[in-house]
Structures are given as structure tokens and as C-alpha cells.
Amino acid sequence: MFDRLRRWRAERFEARHPFPAEAWAEARARLPLLQWLDDDEAERLGRRAWRFLHAKRLSLHPDLAANTPFDEPARLALAGQACLLTLGWSEDEHLEAFSGFHEVLILPDAFQRQVEEMDEYGVIHAYVDERAGETSHQGPVVVAFPDLMESGDFCGFNVVIHELAHKLDMGNSLDVDGFPPLPRDIDPKAWHRVFTAVWDDLQAHLARGETPPIDDYAATHPGECFAVCCEYFFTAPDELCGAYPALYALLERYFRQATLDRLPLTGQPDEA
Ligand SMILES: [Zn+2]
Fold it and tell me: What would the DSSP string read from start to end of 15-78?
């Protein structure tokens, strides 16, 4: 019965909001990350991105809205990167995973936050943190425009994927802890073991004064470790798999996507 209801809703949505195939093709042409999907994936992602744009409010800061053209392909490109995370999941799982926010807010620049954190000894550390994006439980997903423009390539950085990963993480708690709700076929102990090994390796690199194999922002907090690993999983899976094969394999099962197979062979468009 729910299937029929869902189908009826989908048909009604499509009738009211015909899928903008041309704008989606343009969005894919702009972002390498969306270009390398196969036809089936691209079709499914495009339609989800289109529904995402109707389910969530996409807001531009007034300073941006005045002089930044943010056309339909740009909106679809943003939604496409968001929905890429859940592309391997069913419609219900996707809707549930993204139920904790209603708005994506784009700010003109990276923003600063006064952060206070208590360490394990109960000492409060206060510092100013420059952020490309931000998200909180039930709050909007906030991204900075320059970082959004830098996202969409196979470079290991993607602010949309990063912030949405935090939203997945918050599916079972008020704060990020690197432990999102897991499907039944993933043992929480295995999740903990694999992520702890990566965390320990990151800390060991830093302690030796060496550059870790992935962005050292991952070493600042277990929640950031998960979000950064998600960025690599989708945008530099070869680097993630090279450095931490067990983690890549775990995320492949979690997201039900084999991003390594999707990676372009050269990473560069054809040079004519
Ligand atoms: Zn973060």
C-alpha cells in the first residue's frame, strides 16, 4: 500500500514539476564529479536532486543573491552533490537520512566561529575557527560560496559532501561523533575498529611531524574524520583506498556505492 502511495506521490510531483533534463545535463557538464556516473545512476541522481530542490529551501545570502547568477543548473549541481551521498540507498532511506534539515544556506565567504571545547580533563579551550561550512542538529546546512565553487572535482575536497556527512552522522545523536546510524549488515564494532585505526594513524603522523595521507582536518575530531573520509570516498577514492583500504571497503558497504570504479582514468578531460 505504501508503494502505491509513494508511486502516486511521485507521479503527482512529476506532473507538477517536469524534470528539467537540459538543466541537469548542463549541471553534469559543469561538474566532473557528476559527469562520470553511468546513465542509470545519472538519471536516478538527477530526479532525486530535482525533488531535493523542492523539499529543501536553497537560500543565498543577500550579498550573494544581488550579483551571483545561481541558475537552475547551479542549483541542480548542488543538489546532485548532496544526493550523491545517498544514491546507493532506497528512496525511504534517502528521505530519512536527509530529514534533519530543511534549508541549505549559501554565504558569500568562509565564516569565523568562536569555538569553546572541553577536553578530556575538563579544561575549556577557546579559539576562532575558520569554516567553509557548518551544520547543526535540525539547523540549516551552511556552505561558503567560494568553497562551493571549489567543490565538484576529483580533488578530495567537497564542502557539500562534508556538511551532508555531518547530517548523516547526526541521524542518531544531537552532535557529530563519527558514528552515523548503521545498516544492519555493518557491525558497529567493525565500524569503530576501522575508524579508530585510521584516527590513530592520523595522530601518529602528526606526532612524528609528518603530513597524513588525507587532509589533517580529519585528525581534529572523530566527526571531522568521518566527514573528511566521506569527501575522499566520493572525490578521491583512489587516495583513500591507497592509504586506508579497510576504511574504503567499509564506506563502500555503508554507501552501497563503488566510487573507485567511477573514477575517471586520467582525472583530466581530453586534451585536444
Ligand atoms: Zn566538519
Answer: HHS---HHHHHHHHHH-HHHHTS-HHHHHHHHHHHHHHHHHSEEEE-HHHHHH----HHHHHHH
